[in-house]
Amino acid sequence: MQVAMAIANSNQIHDMMKSPKILIALAVLGTTFTLHAKELKLDECPANVQETIRANARGGKVDEVNAITLDDVTLYWTVVDVPERREDLKLLVGSDGGLIKSREEIDLADAPAAVREAARKLVPEGGELDDGVDREVSGGKAAYALQIERPNAPDVDLLIAEDGTVINQTEDQED
Q1: 65 with 78: CB under 8 angstroms?
Q2: Is the pLDDT of residue 171 over 70?
Q3: Under a CB-based contact definition with an 8 Å cutoff, are residues 52 and 62 in contact?
Q4: Contact by Cβ (8 Å): 134, 104
Q5: Class of domain 1-101
Q6: What are the residue ranges spanned by the domains of the chain?
Q7: Is residue 131 very low, low, confident or very high in pLDDT (cuts 50, 70, 90)?
Q8: Alpha carbon distance 59, 2 (integer Å)
């Protein structure tokens, strides 16, 4: 199950399926594994996985389900179109039917006050906090991914716990 948790901690599961960069890096490091990805219809998933997806879809329409199998571990990456939401809801469900992680974009105003305050303290003069926030829930704990746009410098990516604790702060290398 360590493989499942490593995949669950990645925010780029869907991209991993489309890009061989991670696979090449693992191959160079001498890691051997078998990876299979297959798009499914919801009714093709195991009953316990279907139940978890439906229970967490918030009345939305399931747009896609991808079964990702790495060696003997299968995870189900689901994209749900939820009415009146800024972006799609993404769910990661284990083969046992357990919800491993959910991710959705919310407005900054909808984030807890402690998260907004912690982020605002880190915005430099002339910088600005992006209004889109990714709310991730894993293991029953919520964390918020935000971005600070800085003038003449790379943006800063933040991950902040619900209580306002900064979990991670890194410069965005793509800027």
Answers
A1: yes
A2: yes
A3: no
A4: yes
A5: alpha beta
A6: 1-101, 111-175
A7: confident
A8: 32
Closest to 38 in 3D by CA, of 89, 77, 85, 79: 77
Q: Distance of alpha carbon 142 from its chain centroid, rounded?
A: 11
- DSSP characters for 18-29? H--HHHHHHHHT
Amino acid at 69: T
When pLDDT is cut at 50, 70 and 90, the band that residue 55 belongs to is very high
In sequence order, which residues have a C-beta less than 8 Å from that of residue 46 and are 6 or more positions away? 95, 97
Is the sign of the CA dihedral 19, 175, 25, 70 positive or negative? negative
Which residues 6+ apart lie within 8 Å of 37 measured at CB? 17, 66, 67, 68, 69
- Residue 96 backbone phi and psi in degrees, to 5: -80, 0
Q: Which CATH number fits domain 111-175: 3.30.160, 3.40.1090, 3.40.30, 3.10.450?
A: 3.10.450
